[in-house]
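Appendix B, example 12.
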Amino acid sequence: MPAKLSVNLNAIAMLRNRRDLPWPDVAHFGRLALGAGAYGLTVHPRPDQRHIRFADLPVLRALIDDEFPEAEFNIEGYPTEDFLALCERTEPDQVTLVPDDPAQATSDHGWDCIAHQAFLKETVARLKGQGMRVSLFLDGDGNQAMAEAASATGADRVELYTGPYGGCYDAAEEADRQIALLGKTADFAHALGLGVNGGHDLTVANLPALVKRIPYLAEVSIGHGLTADALEYGMAETVRRFRRACGESL
């Protein structure tokens, strides 16, 4: 079964926030993406609201509920009390927990699920108790012990950090090495009963090799590369291009 595409809207929101104006309209582009067959929408609301704003969340939740009830809403973030309360108010279908410092420009590493075992277990239980699926951002470095620690938290899925793979766009040999490590990590997680997602710097060019190596990949969350392509092809056609790269026959 092809990996499902969740469109990350942060880059659209960051462009909007350059001016005190309501465009580009984040909900409008979410509607275009879902109308073109995206499985869901992803946002990462940071404390400084430098891209997605807290006020965007109920609007996007309503968009999905009212117009695309089969789609999913995925919220990413570091689990501060404020973030957890935001999730409880918004009720996303999935929460992806990332170990980001608020000052980071973007997510660039996965959880140390061994060192943070107790914290993650408590957080996962809280969110799952509210009916949300929980995914943990995990380095795709072939570490079996880390996959086992992720499973021990009670999380439903892991999201493999694919940034190192995405950075190999001009280095085929290193890309092959990164694919092997991601696949190894995914196999460990899959064997433990975890669902496997992927995200960060994925493109139409590098997705096919990833989904071929990890045929059970459940979902990919893509923002930067997809938004860049949308400048050339438009949002709807870009979503279709990424769906084909995920293995869908359109």
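The beta strands are 4-8, 40-43, 72-77, 94-97, 133-139, 157-161, 195-199, 219-222. The first strand starts at residue 4 and ends at 8.
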